[in-house]
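User: structure tokens for this one?
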Amino acid sequence: MKKKLLFLSFAFLFCLFTLTGCSLSFDLGGGKTITNTEPLTIEAGATATEIAEEYLDAVVTVMVEDRSGNSISFGSGVAVYAGGYIATNYHVINTAVNSNIFELQVYLNTETTGYDAEILWYNQSLDLAIIRCDYYNIPFVKMADRWIEGSKHLRILEQVITIGTPIDFGLQNTASIGYISSAEYRYATSDTNLYEDLIQHSAAISNGNSGGPLFDMNGNLIGLNTLGASDSTSNGQTVSANDIYFAVPIYPIMEIIEEVANGTFEMPKLGITGFDKYEASYSNYGTFEEDGFKVSSVETNSSSYNKLSEGDIIKKITCVDGKVFEIEERNDLIYALLHSEPGDNITIEYKRGNSTSNVTITLS
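Assistant:
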């Protein structure tokens, strides 16, 4: 992906010539100046208490309200980029998507007056969204992929921290601590969605914690809390334990936040529909139990037409920069697309019957 590095490079060079640290600010016009241009940092060996105290002000309450200011629903979010850009769950803000009835408000830590916010990007399958708050100087945190990439994979009983607004608006920025309780990817279903690549942990969350951050002990944002076991069926089994919770990985937000912030992000299109083995079971698509993404239809006006066919199983995608995505399930395909841009040529390895072939397709 062609990253827009101008702003980051400037900030880095500024820091090199500043003995007292980086304190860059820039004017957005209209009297709006961003002074928080560097993420909050945590010293090596910091305690859970120190991490939570440092990050409290980066966590916000996200409220969907009607035009009279009455709360319709609420959840949590966390600032991830300079200028008021906040990551949250899709299901926290979905009632405000394309709505003329409801609006989005963001409440800072300990504050009871909200700021207007706009929805910039969302993906229901990933249960992720990026919004921007009218208050541009929210301190923001650094992100790290500890789940999707295998090099620094989360380990069972690794300690994690959550912060959010559970149960009631009066409990803003409540912190809890727990552990990674499985070293395996999880999937779960609720009334409205199928969740994949879930991080399973034991740090207590409640309804209002949705969209709030999950941190590792290095102070990295690694996921957003999305549901508890009482809300879901996990790995095909009804779960009744009270100390099992799930977070969606932050990796997709990391891939696109700069483009979203710069107003240049455009989701590339492959021109197919399909499902994986979890969706096959969840949506009664028939028997399909192997790894991969099974094509169910191909758009006639897409570059995939006459190259992929119904019944093909996508096994691997190689992006234009050489990055390879093994396609074990739906989310892997989404990650490959988020890593790409319209106009990129990607190489797809697919299985048709008993044969495996490769084809190059230009994303639209």
